[in-house]
Amino acid sequence: MVSYMGWIVLSYGLAAVLVHFLHGVLLREKPKDGKRLHYILVTHNHGNQMEWYLRALSWYARLRGESVKVTVLDEASQDDTVAIIQRLRDQAGIELTTIGLMNADADEISRQATAWTEEEIQVYVDLRVPQEAAKIPYVHV
Fold this sequence. Notes:
The structure is a single chain. This protein is α/β, with parallel strands linked by helices. The chain folds into 2 domains: about 1-30; about 30-135, Spore Coat Polysaccharide Biosynthesis Protein SpsA, Chain A (Alpha-Beta Complex), CATH 3.90.550.10. Helix content is about 45%, strand content about 20%. The protein is built from 4 helices and 4 strands, in the order αβαβαβαβ. The chain is elongated and about 70 Å long. The termini are far apart. About 20% of the residues are buried. Keywords: Membrane, Transmembrane, Transmembrane helix. This is Glycosyltransferase 2-like domain-containing protein. It comes from Paenibacillus vini.
């Protein structure tokens, strides 16, 4: 009798997980307001934090059932920031693009950030400023 109850509870649990997964997939196919989130991250030697930032955005996209676009504007990093970005390019839920900026100034970065379409909700995060990382979901500074 106990084994039958165990199978019943397991079946209900698996059915609930399947419903949540399919609901997330269906929500990902059609955006709610027609606008997509686009995070623009400006980096310079952020190898220690970059993996956590990208994984947090991936988890956020999965939990919300949305597709998130991430563009990384890298200002000539000397550490492994670009290598980490390349390795995490295939994260589920995010579309990742890297643009290298050599000796970039604030005007050039703003031009790059405003060059994208108006059909996106853009979140500009300059990671060179310490408190800006708080704009990324699940990241607390």
